[in-house]
Amino acid sequence: MFFKSPKDDERISWTKHVKEKMRFYMLSESRLRRVLFRPDRKEAGIAPETIAVMQPTGSKKHPTEIWLMYQPLDDARGKRAGKKIKIITAWRYPGKSPVREPPPIPEDILQDLIRK
Asked: How many Cβ atoms are within 10 Å of 101's Cβ, its own excluded?
């Protein structure tokens, strides 16, 4: 099977790591773009300032999920324009992954948010 390596464009930058994972998990560029732009679930990534997105795949008997971790990049002025992103890694999770719990919010801050 021939693997076509994705090229950087004006919106997406691909790391060498994600290209290796794409080859390992047999994921195409178009499949990862679909996960990126139409995720089923979105969570904070495990690395600082990253976001992880997921789409379920597979069948009822053999469910899997495709996960993608990316980082929004800053523009030349240091502001996060939201236009350019760097895809760091992608992986195929066997089965259904547990939903991560939201970060703990102190009770006094939670009460202030509810009142406003």
From this structure: 6
